[in-house]
Write a structure and sequence with these properties.
This protein is α/β, with parallel strands linked by helices. The chain is built from four helices and five strands. Strand 3, helix 3 and strand 4 form a beta-alpha-beta unit.
């Protein structure tokens, strides 16, 4: 079991909602506090993993959604994209954002078994 405190954030809404912006803002803040953070994208949330889908979303006064996602990944955040949800929407695996991986729930559940705290958006 790891000594690093972990946080799993589940996001089931896409970039058209301010909820996804808040989720990514919280995720970035958690990384800045020293937590290891994984985001599990499910349902409509898998759209966040599609390259270019977040380029025009900017909910004031937050940073642009694509900047939040890029910062999250570049600072060590883990992005899990639900494979059944992704496939259901006919998305292209070659067009996902940097740092995202298309997986089942297993990796997220492993973190929870290890004691990760959870947040849902």
């Amino acid at each position: 079991m790891s000594n690093t405190k972990k946080l799993v954030i589940t996001v089931s809404v896409n970039s058209s909602s301010d909820i996804s912006t808040v989720a990514l803002t919280v995720a970035n803040a958690a990384i800045s506090k020293g937590l290891e953070v994984g985001i599990f994208l499910s349902s409509e949330g898998v759209e966040l993993s599609r390259e270019g889908a977040n380029d025009y979303t900017h909910i004031q006064p937050f940073k642009k959604l694509n900047e939040l996602l890029e910062s999250f990944a570049s600072n060590g955040g883990v992005i899990w994209t639900c494979s059944p949800c992704f496939n259901h929407r006919g998305l292209n695996a070659d067009e996902i954002v940097k740092g995202a991986v298309i997986v089942g729930a297993g990796p997220m559940l492993d973190w929870i078994i290890e004691g990760a705290q959870t947040l849902s958006f």
